[in-house]
Write a structure and sequence with these properties.
The chain has 391 residues and is of the alpha/beta class. The chain has three domains: 3-105; 133-185, Alpha-Beta Plaits (2-Layer Sandwich), CATH 3.30.70; 188-388, Rossmann fold, CATH 3.40.50. The chain is built from 16 helices and 13 strands. Strands 5, 6, 7, 8, 9, 10, 11, 12 and 13 form a nine-stranded mixed beta sheet that branches. Strands 2-3-1-4 form a four-stranded antiparallel beta sheet.
Length: 391
């Protein structure tokens, strides 16, 4: 492929990404892969070059552009070499008089006022830096020191005692340690959520929004002998946990929930859990460095639905925690509405609950919890709060 043809391919892919973001379809990575499956003439260098163009354009553009062409023109306006490819054979059609690209920004304009005040504008560029690959060591079966010998290109994570940090784009799927359940890919910030739970052997622990079970596995490794129940309403995601638990040699029960009947489905856990973790579905604004197109998928209406769901999940969890037990609420979000705002409104609905700060967790105080950010902590962005139920 010529450079001009690569640029045209990037435009075509971005058109598909824009449509998929609007319709909540598959992610950009999957779209790029599917695009080249039907274009066998494109070599590996072509695929890498086009993919780089696609993600450069996505990272540069905070608001969802009207078209892939608009996103690429915006990129080309800052790169004369790309600008010269318009109008070349097999390339994009020539620029029209007065045609301008999508503006560059990090945070969508409508979200700026909703960011936590902890996240200063000078920190925003880190929200889109390429993220490293973090591993969580299964400390129930091995040690970080042993795994550092296995992954010689890794280094201990700064905040999590369980973590190993590898360079971006590292692949570990074929490693013996991964196949044997000795390590799991898990961002350091996500590991810190499990640490904030302070799980103990013998406790009854409920992971209410377990998904594929990454935090359930971390809790099981940290507290051998705990009775852990992982629940979710998404059958496909929850079904990934049992084989992962088998590899890790972890005992974790799973249960599929049926909204809006979660309380009925968990009647045997009402007022009985020592610990309930609510890692709630959210905007994902803390993971833009991994999923920059997430900015294109989020709308005010979708955010409203997420906030309502988070409030509902907190209220469900409150009924499951036993007196004196702990509720840990977490979201991979940097928005006040999804973090500190929820803790404030939750305490207003149940004023006897007590906020229990975890200063050893790192991050910075944000209302009733702590906020981890890429710039300050080197992790994905997470809000984490510990709440204790009155006896």
């Amino acid at each position: 492929m010529t450079p001009a043809a690569r640029l045209q391919a990037a435009i075509e892919i971005l058109d598909l990404v824009v449509q998929s973001a609007r319709d909540q379809g598959p992610p950009a990575d999957a779209i790029v892969t599917r695009y080249f499956k039907t274009r066998r003439y494109a070599g590996s260098k072509d695929r890498r070059a086009v993919r780089e163009l696609v993600f450069r354009a996505i990272r540069r553009t905070a608001e969802r552009p009207p078209s892939g062409r608009g996103a690429i023109i915006g990129l080309a306006e800052q790169d004369p070499e790309l600008l010269g490819l318009f109008g070349q054979p097999r390339g994009p059609e020539p620029l029209h008089e007065g045609e301008r690209g999508s503006p560059a920004a990090i945070v969508p304009e409508w979200l700026v006022s909703q960011l936590s005040p902890v996240v200063a504008p000078e920190e925003w560029p880190a929200l889109l830096e390429r993220a490293p690959v973090d591993l969580r060591v299964n400390v129930a079966r091995t040690t970080r020191e042993a795994m550092l010998r296995e992954f010689s290109n890794g280094a201990p994570t700064r905040l999590s005692p369980w973590g190993i940090r590898l360079p971006a784009d590292s692949r570990i799927d074929d490693s013996d340690a991964s196949r044997g359940g000795l390590v799991e890919v898990q961002d350091e910030g996500s590991q810190l959520i499990a640490l904030a739970c302070e799980p103990k052997p013998g406790q009854r622990i409920l992971d209410l929004c377990a998904g594929a079970g990454g935090k359930s596995l971390a809790l099981a490794a940290a507290a051998p002998g705990a009775a852990i129940l992982a629940t979710d309403s998404n059958r496909a995601r929850l079904s990934k946990l049992p084989p992962r638990a088998e590899r890790a040699e972890a005992t974790i029960e799973t249960r599929l929930l049926n909204p809006p009947r979660e309380i009925a489905d968990l009647d045997d856990w009402r007022d009985a859990a020592d610990l309930v973790l609510v890692d709630a579905p959210c905007s994902g604004s803390g993971t833009w460095r991994r999923n920059p197109e997430g900015r294109w998928r989020l709308t005010p209406e979708r955010l409203d639905r997420l906030v309502a769901a988070q409030e509902r999940l907190l209220d469900i969890a409150a009924e499951l925690v036993k007196p004196g037990g702990t509720l840990v609420y977490a979201v991979c979000s940097l928005l006040t509405r999804e973090g500190a705002g929820h803790v404030e409104s939750f305490l207003g609905r149940g004023s006897d609950w007590v906020v229990q700060d975890s200063p050893g967790l790192a991050g910075r105080s944000d209302g009733g919890g702590r906020l981890l950010t890429p710039a300050h902590d080197g992790t994905d962005g997470f809000f984490i709060a510990r709440l204790v139920k009155p006896c």
